Amino acid sequence: MSPPSAAPKLRSLCVFCGSQAGFDPVYVTAATTLGLALAAHGTDLVFGGGRVGLMGALADAVLTGGGKIIGVIPGFLKDKELAHPGATEMLVVPDMHSRKKLMFERSDAFCILPGGMGTLDEMFEIVTWRQLRLHDKPIILVNVANYWADMITLLDGMVRTGFAYSGRHALITVVDQVEAVIGAAEAELKAPKAPDLFKV
Questions:
Q1: CA 199, CA 60: separation in Å to the nearest integer?
Q2: Which of 144, 176, 42, 154 is nearest to 184 (CA)?
Q3: Which CATH number covers residue 52?
Q4: What is the pLDDT of residues 1-32, one digit of tens each?
Q5: How many domains does the chain have?
Q6: pTM of the prediction?
Q7: Largest CA distance in the chain
């Protein structure tokens, strides 16, 4: 009898999050907690390359824990001196579209922390790609302090009114605590969700 196969290792996680810190310190605490957890687990962080806001707090925590951070930043943002100076690897790209493509290529899974317009843009593009069956990588939405509650209600409303399929629940895994992110991603890597749930 052959031994059971080892659970898939989350080698790299792309995190979309705000370039602002938010008013409530719970958001920075969540980003810091996730960063330390990634470092302890040996999971590389792939992120937008910034040194400010939740991005900066997350990256600082990974480095504090002895982990690696891979920043992907457009040249125009690097020129504004917003790039994280301690990045293990900093990839400079020509535009935002190239940034998202490269972040996708370097990551095993995705995590969304609180953020603003840029975070929403990144999240919806990666979710849409999954709906179109361009990938089947886990997408974990962290509802820190109920931050994403209104958006979850909106998504449910899209299903209820016929503008999204009920299978959209299979596109995103929602957790309330950052401590659940790694386990949720690895569980889905081990048992991918059925592609027939993702209707176009």
A1: 39
A2: 176
A3: 3.40.50.450
A4: 544 556 789 999 999 999 999 999 999 999 99
A5: 1
A6: 0.92
A7: 59
